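Need residues for this backbone.
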C-alpha cells in the first residue's frame, strides 16, 4: 500500500502487519517443498508467512505442483500500482526428473514400388527420459512449385458475431494455427491472401504469417511475412500477399497485429464453439490461447492444384512412458503417381525440451507407372468410411482383393473373376485398412476406414 503497509494472503491465511521501505529494492524468496506440500515466504531473509502449498489463495483445495508464476500490477482502494519486479531466479534444491527425451532412428526411409501396391514401413520412437514423452508425427513434401489455378480456403471460424478488445489501450497480435490435419488437403498450393473481420478501428494494422513455434513454448514461431494493410470496419477484409507462401505440409500461423485504443473492441470473433488449440493472442512477448469460447474471424485463401501426397500415418500422436517406445507405421501409397522419384520428410514433434523436432528423410521410387496410358480401369469403392460392407467395382476383371491392416498384416483375401465384389469388414476392429485390388488392367491400393 502507499502507506508502506502490506496485505499478504496465502493458503487461506492473511497478514497485514509487515511494513517495507519505499524506493528500495528488497528480495522476496519463496521456498516450496513439493514432497511435504509446504511453502514459506521470506522478505530480505526474514520469514513472513508459511502455508500448505497445495491450497489456493482462499484456502480451498488446489494442486501440489509448480506450474507457472504470474505477476499482476494490482493495487487496492485508491492506490496505484507503483512497483517493479526484476531479477527472477528459479533454483532447484533437489534433483528433478530428467525431462522427456526422444530417441529416434533418423536414417532415411527408401521405398521402391514396381507393382502399384501400397508399401508399409515402420520407425521407432523411444523415451529415454524420466517424464512422459508426448509426440505427434506428420509428413511434409518436397514440392517444387505450385501449379494450377484451383482455389481453396482454410478456416476454423464461422461468421462474425462480436468484436473483442479491452478497456485499456494495448498493442495486440492475433494468430490462427493451421496444423497438419488442415494443411494435408492443401499441400502443393500457395497461401495467397488472408481474410479477416474488423469490428472496430485498429491502428497500424499489419497482416502476418508465422512459422510453427517450439513445441515447449506456446504460440507462433518465426515471422515469415508482414505487410501493412488498411482495413474497412464492419466487414470482411481481404489482404493479398505480395509474396505467396508455398505450403508443404508444415503448420503455419496466420493473423494480424495492430494497436487497439482504449475502449475499442476491434477484432472479430464468431459465436463459437472454440476449436481447441488454434486461436492465439498476445499483448506482450509471449502468446496465450484465446480464453473465450469463440474463434477469431480469420481465413486463409490458397491457390493451386493440391500435390499428390503419398504418405499416410494412421496413428499420428501418442504418449510414451519413461523407458518405453512405440512403433509408428507409415503407408506409402502410389495411387495416381507416374513413374519417377518423390521425396519428403516425416516430422516427429515432441515435448523434449532439447529436440522439439526430429525428421526422417523419405525417398519413394515408382519404378513402373501406376497410370496405364493404354487402358483405363476406373475403380469404385463405396461406402467409405463404412461400418461393415465395402462394395468394389472395376471396369476390368478383378482377380484378387487383399485386405491388410495398418500394420501390413493380411486380414482377408478374395479370389474371383468378376468386375465387382463385396468385402465384409463387420468382424474387424474399427480403424484404417487397405484394399489391394488386382485387375487385368492395373493394381489398385485404396485406403478405407471402418468405424
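Answer:
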Amino acid at each position: 500500500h502507499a502507506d508502506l503497509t502490506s496485505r499478504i494472503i496465502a493458503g487461506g491465511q492473511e497478514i497485514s502487519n509487515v511494513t517495507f521501505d519505499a524506493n528500495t529494492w528488497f528480495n522476496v524468496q519463496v521456498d516450496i517443498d513439493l514432497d511435504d506440500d509446504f511453502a514459506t515466504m521470506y522478505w530480505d531473509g526474514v520469514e513472513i508467512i508459511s502455508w500448505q502449498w497445495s491450497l489456493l489463495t482462499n484456502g480451498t483445495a488446489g494442486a501440489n505442483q509448480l506450474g507457472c508464476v504470474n505477476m499482476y500490477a494490482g493495487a487496492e482502494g485508491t492506490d496505484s500500482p507503483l512497483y517493479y519486479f526484476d531479477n527472477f531466479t528459479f533454483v532447484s534444491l533437489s534433483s528433478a526428473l530428467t525431462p522427456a527425451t526422444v530417441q529416434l532412428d533418423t536414417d532415411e526411409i527408401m521405398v521402391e514400388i514396381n507393382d502399384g501396391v501400397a508399401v508399409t514401413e515402420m520407425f521407432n520412437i523411444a523415451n529415454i527420459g524420466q517424464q512422459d514423452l508426448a509426440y505427434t508425427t506428420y509428413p511434409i513434401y518436397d514440392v517444387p512449385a505450385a501449379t494450377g489455378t484451383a482455389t481453396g480456403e482454410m478456416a476454423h471460424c464461422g461468421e462474425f458475431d462480436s468484436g473483442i478488445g479491452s478497456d485499456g489501450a494495448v498493442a495486440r497480435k492475433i494468430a490462427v494455427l493451421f496444423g497438419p490435419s488442415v494443411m494435408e488437403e492443401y499441400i502443393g498450393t500457395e497461401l495467397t491472401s488472408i481474410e479477416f473481420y474488423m469490428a472496430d478501428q485498429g491502428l497500424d494494422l499489419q497482416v502476418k504469417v508465422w512459422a510453427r513455434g517450439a513445441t515447449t513454448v506456446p504460440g507462433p514461431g518465426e515471422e515469415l511475412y508482414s505487410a501493412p494493410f488498411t482495413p474497412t470496419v464492419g466487414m470482411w477484409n481481404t489482404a493479398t500477399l505480395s509474396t505467396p507462401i508455398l505450403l508443404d505440409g508444415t503448420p503455419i500461423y496466420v493473423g494480424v497485429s495492430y494497436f487497439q485504443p482504449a475502449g475499442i473492441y476491434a477484432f472479430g470473433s464468431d459465436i463459437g464453439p472454440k476449436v481447441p488449440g488454434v486461436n492465439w493472442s498476445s499483448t506482450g512477448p509471449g502468446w496465450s490461447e484465446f480464453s473465450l469460447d469463440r474463434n477469431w474471424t480469420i481465413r486463409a485463401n490458397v491457390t493451386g492444384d493440391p500435390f499428390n501426397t503419398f504418405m499416410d500415418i494412421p496413428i499420428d500422436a501418442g504418449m510414451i512412458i519413461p523407458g518405453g517406445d512405440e512403433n509408428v507405421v507409415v503407408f506409402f501409397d502410389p495411387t495416381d503417381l507416374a513413374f519417377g522419384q518423390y521425396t519428403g520428410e516425416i516430422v516427429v514433434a515432441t515435448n523434449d525440451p532439447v529436440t522439439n523436432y526430429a525428421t526422417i528423410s523419405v525417398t519413394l521410387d515408382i519404378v513402373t507407372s501406376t497410370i496405364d496410358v493404354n487402358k483405363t480401369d476406373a475403380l469404385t469403392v463405396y461406402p467409405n468410411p463404412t461400418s461393415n460392407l465395402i462394395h468394389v467395382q472395376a471396369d476390368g476383371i478383378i482377380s484378387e482383393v487383399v485386405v491388410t491392416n495398418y500394420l501390413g498384416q493380411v486380414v482377408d483375401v478374395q479370389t474371383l473373376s468378376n468386375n465387382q465384389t463385396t468385402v465384409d469388414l463387420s468382424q474387424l476392429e474399427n480403424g484404417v485398412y487397405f484394399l489391394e485390388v488386382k485387375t487385368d488392367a492395373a493394381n489398385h491400393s485404396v485406403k478405407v476406414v471402418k468405424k
